[in-house]
């Protein structure tokens, strides 16, 4: 992201649930990417295809990667980082509108559409659907077959809106602590998943029960540990990575050849299932290939420290790339002193960002347009980005806010936000206060991207409340799902202003 300051670059990882127009059932795309490639090429974009075997599963352009998350029923677009600062949110919004418009057109060719929900309301979690819909990435063999994750629990298009905000190394832990501590507000503001498998869960954001359920029976208890908020905030990056890679955790499979994408690597399982720290501090470690079963002796390298950064499942992550991988000896030395990892990563040219994971996917639809009007509806997909950017660009006040509330108190509010969202008075107050801090962190001309969040706070109604109401209104009807999904189909709402073409 070419990080200079917090918010100097922004991006977005946007997940989108797909449904059949005829009946509202979850839909696994077939010809979608061929149609999407044609639409992008008509705009004179160079397109590079991504395939798993013979199947087309993604497209890369200068604007980002249009692909799939865990299943063919859940689209994911990772927009390339663009310049932040004044006009940054407007430029990102223009890219989002363009992507949604092209997704809508490409899906129409197979009788499908996008759904405004962060989880499909009535989709099977069964083995047959999982086998048909799952994206066949090599990593899932490790996660399901070796580690014992209940990966099928996410195959009903559990979808998040993941804002990405540049955060330089020396501010990384402060930024991460802010987004972790204040996550209950983001969960509540953008809650949009009250239903699962055709039943009302009693929760506003059931999506976020996924991690506890997925890892609860893992072969390694440390996997479940890494989705729970730590008992205290992180002191520095060394502290963060001791939590993530240290005692009680088990290293994920490591790549036989460094430089591969973590979702498609040739995995090596370390014998005896050590933590990554134990492996890095060793002279070498025996393992076996996850593909052939062949015995392999793996030598520790500083690059494995960088590679492992995706291993936890908290409500926010600090993600980074480096110009050069750290040497093992300098890594171990730096890790032994306060602030040492920051100094080392800075010397290695680390460029990082905060990936938000708390907000559910929320879009404009007919129901929201009727209730709140075009301005609020147009801001919905961008509101999580505006909320995170504003908080991080007002870092001192955001940090002061979470310290006033207290880490333990905020940790306890996470489950309350998942269940009650803005119905709870404490969560509602927190959401209102985070919005005030976020608004102060944005240029005046871009504060309108918080309109959806403002509407949620003022009315104490979320996407989950609207979806639950629709579901109840159509109870007992044979075509209930089709009727509900017709009202919740994503509408592409153009922003009411012109934006700079710079990105």
Describe it for me?
This protein has 503 residues and is of the alpha+beta class. The protein folds into two domains: 9-249 and 311-487, Creatine Kinase, Chain A, domain 2; 252-310, no CATH class. The chain contains 22 helices and 15 strands. The strands form three sheets. Strands 1, 2, 3, 4, 5, 6, 7, 14 and 15 form a nine-stranded antiparallel beta sheet that branches. It has a four-stranded antiparallel beta sheet with strand order 10-11-12-13, with no helix packed on it. Strand 8 and strand 9 form a beta hairpin. Helix 5 (172-181) crosses helix 17 and helix 6 runs parallel beside helix 18 (407-420). The longest helix is centred in the first third of the chain and has 21 residues, at 88-108. The radius of gyration is 22 Å and the shape is globular. The two termini are 12 Å apart. 49% of the residues are buried. The mean pLDDT is 96.
Total number of β-strand segments? 15
Radius of gyration: 22 Å
Any idea what the shape is?
globular
Oligomer: single chain
Model regions low in confidence, pLDDT < 50 over at least 5 residues? none
At the first level of CATH, the class of the largest domain is Alpha Beta
Distance between the termini: 12 Å
Looking at the structure, the CATH topology of the largest domain is Creatine Kinase, Chain A, domain 2
Q: Helical element count?
A: 22
Q: Strand fraction band?
A: 15-25%
- Whole-number tally of structural domains: 2
Structural class: alpha+beta
Mean pLDDT across every amino acid position: 96
Name given to the CATH architecture of the largest domain? 2-Layer Sandwich
Instruction: Summarize the main sheet.
Output: 9 strands, antiparallel
* Percentage of residues assigned to helices: 40-55%
């Amino acid at each position: 992201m070419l990080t200079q300051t917090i918010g100097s670059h922004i991006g977005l990882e946007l997940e989108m649930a797909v449904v059949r127009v005829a009946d509202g059932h979850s839909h696994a795309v077939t010809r979608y990417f061929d149609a999407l490639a044609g639409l992008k090429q008509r705009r004179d974009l160079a397109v590079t295809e991504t395939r798993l075997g013979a199947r087309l599963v993604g497209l890369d352009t200068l604007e980002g990667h249009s692909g799939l998350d865990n299943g063919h029923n859940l689209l994911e677009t990772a927009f390339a980082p663009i310049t932040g600062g004044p006009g940054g949110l407007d430029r990102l919004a223009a890219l989002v509108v363009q992507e949604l418009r092209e997704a809508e057109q490409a899906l129409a060719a197979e009788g499908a559409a996008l759904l405004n929900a962060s989880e499909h309301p009535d989709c099977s979690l069964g083995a047959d659907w999982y086998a048909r819909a799952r994206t066949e990435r090599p990593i899932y063999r490790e996660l399901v077959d070796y580690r014992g994750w209940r990966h099928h629990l996410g195959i009903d298009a559990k979808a998040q809106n993941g804002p990405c905000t540049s955060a330089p190394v020396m501010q990384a832990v402060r930024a991460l602590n802010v987004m972790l501590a204040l996550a209950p507000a983001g969960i509540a503001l953008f809650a949009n998943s009250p239903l699962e498998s055709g039943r009302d869960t009693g929760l506003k954001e059931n999506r976020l029960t996924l991690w506890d359920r997925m890892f609860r029976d893992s072969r390694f208890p440390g996997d479940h540990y890494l989705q729970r908020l730590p008992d205290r905030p992180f002191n520095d990056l060394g502290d963060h990575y001791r939590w993530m890679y240290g005692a009680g955790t088990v290293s994920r499979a490591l790549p036989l050849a460094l430089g591969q994408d973590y979702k498609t690597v040739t995995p090596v399982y370390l014998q005896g299932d050590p933590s990554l720290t134990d492996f890095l501090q060793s002279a070498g470690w025996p393992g076996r290939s996850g593909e052939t079963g062949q015995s392999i002796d793996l030598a520790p390298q500083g690059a494995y420290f960088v590679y492992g950064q995706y291993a936890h499942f908290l409500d926010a992550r600090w993600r980074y790339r480096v110009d050069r991988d750290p040497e093992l000896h300098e890594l171990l030395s730096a890790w032994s002193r306060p602030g040492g990892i920051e100094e080392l990563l800075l010397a290695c040219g680390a460029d990082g960002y905060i990936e938000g994971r708390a907000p559910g996917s929320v879009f404009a639809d007919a129901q929201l347009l009727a209730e709140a009007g075009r301005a609020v509806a147009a801001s919905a997909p961008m509101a999580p980005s505006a909320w995170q950017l504003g908080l991080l660009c007002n870092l001192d006040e955001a940090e002061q806010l979470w310290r006033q509330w207290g880490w333990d108190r905020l940790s306890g509010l996470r489950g309350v936000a998942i269940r009650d969202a803005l119905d709870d008075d404490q969560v509602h107050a927190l959401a209102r206060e985070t919005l005030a801090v976020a608004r102060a962190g944005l240029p005046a001309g871009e504060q309108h991207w918080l309109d959806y969040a403002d509407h949620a706070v003022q009315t104490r109604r979320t996407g989950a409340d609207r979806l639950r109401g629709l579901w109840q209104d159509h109870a007992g009807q044979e075509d209930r799902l089709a009727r509900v999904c017709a009202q919740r189909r994503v509408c592409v709402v153009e922003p009411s202003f012109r934006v700079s073409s710079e990105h």
